[in-house]
Write a structure and sequence with these properties.
The protein has 26 helices and 17 strands. It is of the alpha/beta class and 595 residues long. The protein starts with a strand and ends with a helix. The chain binds phosphoenolpyruvate and magnesium ion.
């Protein structure tokens, strides 16, 4: 047995988990070419035939799992995958290549699939172009069935056996959303940051997680026994029995504390000690998280990241208008009369959809969010029609991501009007005023918030991206995690400026970035005048408690002092001192904040 070892990283999702490591190396990047002797050719063709059969089986299993997790309409997208594996115009050229060029099947699959996919991508018909990503997926399935890759886990969605600790170099948002929750108890990655989407999903799913662990993959092997401490950011390999029992005790204590926090959270809106009402809503990625909104006592949904409808569906087609409308209606009507803020697709950047944005040198500064929607007007109009068509089911508010200036707001408004007219022509009733809001997450939008605020119905501060773009520090890159700090005076000043603009225009302002879920930073935001917040559902109970123990006047005093400081360290030191004092009236909340 390996000796005991502890590794440290960035804690991104609290909780303690114990399990065996399952190392996942992601999709293999490239396939080696092997030249065959003539006698090997029939053997290779037979390997291909068997791989096709196993691929068809795998797709069937995936479809069944997706049907259980996400519903029938998502399972249908795998039909296209299976069709490729039965299509002679795909398989024929692969066989021909093996026969005439005498090359290994993996190589033949890769070359033929790439060729066909790039021809599909060049077609003007967008539906056909979308098939290219199906084909990429099918090629990966075939190559895996041929035995390529050698990863300990071949596919996240088909993890079997006892629940494990997923160990990986990095998880993309679409990897993270597909983690089977009953098969994974925690995850640990060598790269990543606290506000990366994988980390946000871990918190939403209640999975303890630690990221940015140096030398993780060199230190952990498949099957090693691990403890993951998602609060302290520590991973133990092969812990001793003494260490294990200490962690089990802590696990029990944390569970008891969470139950009492949850009970208190269910008792309605939070009000500060000096009588200020504070709304604390949930950020969700999937429609099924509506149950968490109730379970954790959130006051509605402050951010539904609708792009996960696409990211969770194995990167193929977008759900059509009727499918989207059904999902939005379910969320909006289940939560009515509570507000539900649905954000239009924020794809691009690190969130998939390369077939829409094309290869970009710098995708995070490229066709992301509303920019990508403008460049695919039909996709945008379809989503807006789906949204508007369910507006009468409850309190729906539409939020637009990555707004950089007021002209984009105007352009969105004309898209909304067009979508409304199309619905009215079809005889579908749309309420007169569905609120349209802008995310303030690009520095130019924060600086011109006074111009944007009068033209929207509400604003929502996306501090994750606002920090990333203001400080020029990638939110998912551990190498700059010490620069990515909400405490930076530039961030404090921008938030204060946006709040001032919202008040002047008489428009509500919420904070939906992760900053709001940190108790001390929450108090700072409260002190800057913010009264609406949203965060992962599991963070809601603690922050409701914090709001109830706080006084808005004390928080405002702390915010004024923070605004006068010059470094993030000074701000952090002030907040930890003052937050302690502000919460001193309630020992239980203080214990929860400090645990
Ligand atoms: C943000 O940027 O703060 C935000 C809430 O959106 P996302 O994390 O999805 O980019
Ligand atoms: Mg954002």
């Amino acid at each position: 047995m390996k000796r005991s070892l502890s590794l440290s990283g960035i804690p991104v999702s609290p909780g303690i988990a114990v399990g065996r490591a399952a190392v996942w190396i992601g999709r293999p990047d490239s396939t080696p070419r092997r030249d065959l002797d003539s006698v090997e050719v029939p053997v290779e063709l037979e390997r291909l035939r068997l791989a096709v059969e196993s691929g068809i089986r795998e797709i069937g299993e995936m479809a069944a799992q997706v049907e259980v997790r996400l519903g029938k309409e998502y399972a249908a997208i795998f039909q296209a995958h299976a069709l490729f594996l039965r299509d002679p115009s795909f398989l024929g050229p692969i066989e021909k290549k093996i026969r005439t060029e005498k090359v290994n099947a993996e190589w033949a699959v890769e070359v033929v699939a790439e060729n066909l996919a790039s021809r599909l991508r060049d077609l003007p018909d967008k539906d056909l172009a979308l098939r290219a990503s199906d084909l990429d997926d099918v090629a990966s399935i075939l190559k895996r069935s041929l035995g390529e890759g050698g990863a300990a886990i071949e596919r996240l969605t088909t993890l079997t056996g006892d629940p494990c600790v997923l160990v990986a170099d990095e998880l993309t948002p679409s990897d993270a959303v597909r983690i089977p929750r009953d098969k994974v108890v925690a995850f640990v990655t060598e790269r990543g940051g606290k506000t990366s989407h994988a980390a946000i999903l871990a918190r939403s799913f209640g999975l303890p997680a630690v990221v940015a662990v140096p030398k993780l993959l060199a230190s952990i092997g498949d099957g090693d026994r691990l403890i993951v401490d998602g609060r302290e950011g520590v991973v133990w390999r092969e812990p001793s029995e003494d260490v294990l029992s200490l962690f089990r005790e802590r696990q029990g204590r944390e569970a008891t504390r969470e139950i009492s926090l949850k009970e208190r959270s269910l008792s309605g809106l939070a009000r500060t000690r000096d009588g200020e009402d504070v709304a604390i809503r949930a950020n969700i990625e999937l429609a099924r998280e509506v149950t968490d909104v109730f379970e954790y006592g959130a006051d509605g949904v402050g951010l539904f990241r609708s792009e996960f409808l696409y990211l969770s569906s194995e990167g193929v087609e977008f759900p059509d208008e009727a499918t989207q409308a059904a999902i939005y209606r379910q969320v909006v009507s289940t939560l009515a009369p509570r507000p539900v803020v649905i954000r239009t697709y924020d794809l691009g950047g690190k969130k998939g959809a390369r077939h829409l944005s094309g290869a970009e040198e710098n995708p995070v500064l490229g066709l992301r969010g509303v920019r990508l929607c403008f460049s695919h007007p039909e996709m945008f109009r379809t989503q807006l029609r789906a949204l508007l068509s369910v507006a009468s089911a409850g309190d729906l508010r539409i939020l637009v991501p990555m707004v950089a200036g007021v002209e984009e707001v105007r352009r969105v408004r004309s898209f909304v009007e067009e979508a409304r007219e199309e619905l009215v022509e079809r005889g579908i009733e749309v309420p007169d005023s569905v609120p349209i809001g802008a995310m303030i997450e690009v520095p130019s939008a924060a600086i011109t918030a006074d111009l944007i605020a009068p033209e929207v119905d509400f604003l929502s501060l996306g501090t994750n991206d606002l920090i990333q773009y203001t400080l020029a520090a990638d939110r998912a890159n551990e190498a700059v995690s010490d620069i990515f700090r909400p405490h930076h005076p530039a961030i404090l000043r921008l938030v204060a400026k946006v709040q001032e603009a919202a008040v002047a225009a008489g428009k509500p302002l919420a904070v939906c970035g992760e900053m709001a879920a940190d108790p001390a930073l929450f108090l700072l935001l409260l002190g800057l005048g913010i009264r609406e917040f949203s965060m992962g559902p599991r963070s809601v109970p603690l922050l409701k408690d914090v709001a109830r123990c706080a006084s808005a006047v004390d928080a405002a005093r702390m915010a004024r002092a923070a605004l006068s400081l010059s470094t993030p360290d000074d701000v952090a030191a002030l907040l930890s001192r003052e937050a302690e004092a502000i919460l001193s009236g309630d020992p239980e909340t203080r214990a929860a904040v400090n645990s």
